[in-house]
From TrEMBL:
Main location: cytoplasm
Biological processes per GO annotation: protein folding
Biased composition (Basic and acidic residues): 1-11
Biased amino acid composition, Low complexity: 24-42, 181-192
Classification via InterPro entries: GrpE, GrpE_CC, GrpE_head
Listed name of the protein: Protein GrpE
Gene Ontology terms: cellular component: cytoplasm
Keyword Cytoplasm: yes
Protein's gene: grpE
Oligomer status and interactors: Homodimer.
Lineage, broadest ranks: Bacteria, Bacillati, Actinomycetota, Actinomycetes, Propionibacteriales
Pfam name, any one: GrpE
PROSITE patterns per record: GRPE
Length: 200
């Protein structure tokens, strides 16, 4: 049944008020606002990470360049030594020809040029009679006994000279060695010398 308005144009029923609990935007009085969601690393953290990445890449590149330079130098040295090793037999032939007096004329000019060229690349000959014997440099193939003329084991004869480039030995010298005289041998030698010097 429809309510008739009174003289003032209103009905007897009260007007319904909106329910506060039904309002979605309403929040209990005094409740703190929700914390914002995690936004990830800060700008400073990202910058630090990128800087560390760049530093790591730079260190890797420096190490790589060092390895390349080292390998290139090793290849250069190895190539030079291979060429010099191939020329050692030629130098041996030149040395034998020189010992027999056959190194003359144009042959001598070529030999001198070859020796000069190999010396520019650091090739050095070693091994001579009278030098102290060094097992790191010399290969002894025979023993020539003892001698009072030496104070330490020395080279008595050179069969083939050795060659090196800097501290690297390309070929040891092949030699015969002589030892210093022992005390008994020295005494015998001195007695023999005294007997020879004594008047008859």
């Amino acid at each position: 049944m429809t309510q008739q308005p009174d003289d003032h144009g209103t009905t007897d029923e009260p007007v319904e008020q909106p329910d506060a609990e039904a309002t979605p935007d309403a929040s209990p009085e005094g409740e703190a606002p929700a914390a914002p969601a995690d936004e990830g690393p800060s700008l400073e953290q990202q910058l630090a990470e990128r800087t560390a990445d760049l530093q790591r890449l730079q260190a890797e590149y420096v190490n790589y360049k060092r390895r390349v330079d080292r390998d290139r130098e090793l290849m250069r040295v190895q190539g030079r030594e291979d060429v010099l090793n191939a020329l050692l037999t030629v130098l041996d032939d030149i040395g034998r020809a020189e010992e027999h007096g056959e190194l003359t004329g144009g042959f001598k000019a070529v030999a001198d040029a070859l020796r000069s060229s190999t010396a520019k690349y650091g090739l050095e000959a070693f091994g001579a009679e009278g030098e102290p014997f060094d097992p790191a440099l010399h290969e002894a193939v025979f023993h020539a006994g003892e001698s009072a003329d030496v104070e330490t084991t020395s080279i008595a004869q050179v069969m083939r000279i050795g060659y090196r480039v800097g501290e690297r030995i390309l070929r040891p010298a092949t030699v015969g060695v002589v030892d210093p005289a022992s005390d008994a041998s020295a005494d015998t030698t001195e007695s023999a010398d005294s007997a020879e010097d004594a008047p008859n």
